[in-house]
Amino acid sequence: MNVTLRGRVRQILDNMVQEGYANTKSEAIRLAILNFGEEHIEEEVMVKAKLDKINKEIKEGKRKLLSSKEALGVYAKYVK
């Protein structure tokens, strides 16, 4: 696969190699993709797992689901 990079993306890629973060531009691209996956995709999986756990606890009665009025408490009067 051939990819043409220009502008800011090209500068970042060149800088990654010059600063020693990667030995080659191909390696720099692989590192960037891996970093993106770890930051965004892994986070999405963790958030889904947490929400699934919360939903399970609500169904089992281990966690109480609050109405918006209960959640806002004394501040509910400020919301229309």
Feature tags:
single chain, 80 residues, mainly alpha, 65% helix
Would you tell me the structural class of the helices and strands?
mainly alpha
How do the helices and strands follow one another from N- to C-terminus? HHH
Distance between the termini: 56 Å
Overall morphology: elongated
Task: Catalogue the unreliable spans.
Answer: none
Overall average pLDDT:
91
Kindly estimate the percentage of residues that lie in beta strands according to DSSP.
Answer: under 5%
For the CA atoms, what is the radius of gyration? Answer: 23 Å
Total number of domains: 1
Number of distinct beta strands: 0
Number of helices: 3
Largest sheet: number of strands, sense, barrel closure: none
> Helical residue percent?
55-70%
3D structure, described in words:
By secondary structure, this protein is an all-alpha fold. It has helices at 7-18, 25-59, 68-72.
